[in-house]
Amino acid sequence: MIFSTPQKFIPATKGVRLASAKALWFIFKKNELLVIQKDKSEELEIPNVTDPSELGIKTGPHQFIGYYDEQPCYTAVVTGMTTEQDSFIWSGLRSLFGKLSDELFSISGRAYQIADWRRSHQYCGSCGTKNTLQDGERCLVCPSCGQLHYPRVSPAIMVMIQKDEEFLLARSPHFIPGMYSALAGFSEPGETLEETVHREVYEEVGIRIKNIRYFASQPWPFPHSLMIAFHADYESGEINIDPNEIEDANWFSVNKLPNRLPGLISISRKLIDATLDQLKRPLV
Ligand SMILES: [Zn+2]
Predict the structure, then answer these.
(1) Domain-by-domain residue ranges, the chain?
(2) Which of 15, 160, 191, 273 has the fewest CB atoms lying closer than 10 Å?
(3) Residue 131 alpha carbon to ligand 1 centre in Å
(4) pTM of the full predicted structure?
(5) 273 C-alpha vs ligand 1 centroid, how far in Å?
(6) pLDDT tens for each residue of 214-264
(7) Three-class secondary structure of residue 196 per DSSP
(8) How many other C-beta atoms can be found within 10 angstroms of the C-beta atom of residue 209?
(9) CA of 25 to the centre of ligand 1 (A)
(10) Centroid of ligand 1 to alpha carbon of 31 (angstroms)
(11) How far is the CA of 127 from the centre of ligand 1 (A)?
(12) From the CA of 42, how far away is ligand 1's center (Å)?
């Protein structure tokens, strides 16, 4: 699964930093990651240096994120550059899909969320005191009032609703033309994920569903979602869309698909593909 933890990656919050040891550095300028293209080859690499200053890059406080293939990994945000080398490419994460290995791509997503959390939580949100890192866990603590600041993760659901041989897909106004996807929405405080699924479906398309089954999940670092995908069965009602959320919703089938489906990077595509596979399978 894209963005799931790679097998060769061991997450950790505290590494033993040896000044002379090389490490993989996931360095961000706003939401763009520094990758290096050597010798005009297609292959992109994550910088492997003892310190970003070797590349002429100044960074804010770095965060240790774990070991990849026994190599330490750090993430940091650029604060200044003394040189810009020809081999540097600053790239949004989405466009690195398929260009970095799946494992490095997943670690990049994790690195982005951690770097962004550190950058945006320098001061306590309650009293304004400068936060300090809590020893031994991924947490910032306010030395004045004790408020803890963990990295934010926002759960969101996605659901594929089936009605016999058909399934429901919808499009939001900001989708590219012709694309439809499964319904999705953020969980609200106090809700179970199942309640979120029922509420989102009813709000967006006005139908009732039953038999919710977990499918899979995917961290989605744009900026800090965790998408949890489900299958569900239609129970009652007619499609009645909420025009503030979506511009069209319809029942589709194996033989009647929308012009475009979400990209292979996304869990929505995996959910749709899994549904199509199941519908194509002969009944036994
Ligand atoms: Zn405070």
Answers:
(1) 9-120, 154-280
(2) 273
(3) 8
(4) 0.85
(5) 47
(6) 999 999 888 789 999 999 999 999 999 999 989 999 999 999 999 999 988
(7) helix
(8) 24
(9) 31
(10) 27
(11) 4
(12) 47
154-280, CATH topology level: Nucleoside Triphosphate Pyrophosphohydrolase (3.90.79)
Q: What is the mean pLDDT of residues 53-81?
A: 91
Q: Which two tokens stand for residue 54?
A: 């070797």
DSSP letter for each residue of 125-177: TTT-PBPEEPTTSS-EE-TTT--EEPPP-EEEEEEEEEETTEEEEEE-TTSPT
9-120 is classed CATH 3.55.40.10: no
CA of 225 relative to ligand 1 center, distance in Å:
26
Which of 111, 133, 118, 41 has the alpha carbon at shortest distance from 79? Answer: 118
Tokens of 239: 């499609």
Nearest Cα neighbor of 244 from 158, 191, 185 is 185
CA–centroid distance, residue 126 to ligand 1 (Å): 5
**How far is the CA of 226 from the CAs of 15, 46, 214, 273, in angstroms?**
26, 24, 14, 20
pLDDT tens profile 116-126: 999 899 999 99
CA 78 / ligand 1 centre spacing (Å): 26
* pLDDT tens digits for range 178-217: 999 999 999 999 999 999 999 999 999 999 999 999 999 9
Environment of ion ligand 1 (residues, CB < 5 A):
124, 126-127, 129, 142, 144-145, 147
Give the model's confidence band at 1: pLDDT under 50 very low, under 70 low, under 90 confident, else very high: very low
Other beta carbons within 10 Å of 7: 8
Give the Cα separation of 232 and 211 in Å (integer): 5
- The residue behind tokens 């240790």 is 64
Q: Locate tokens 């002379």: which residue?
A: 20
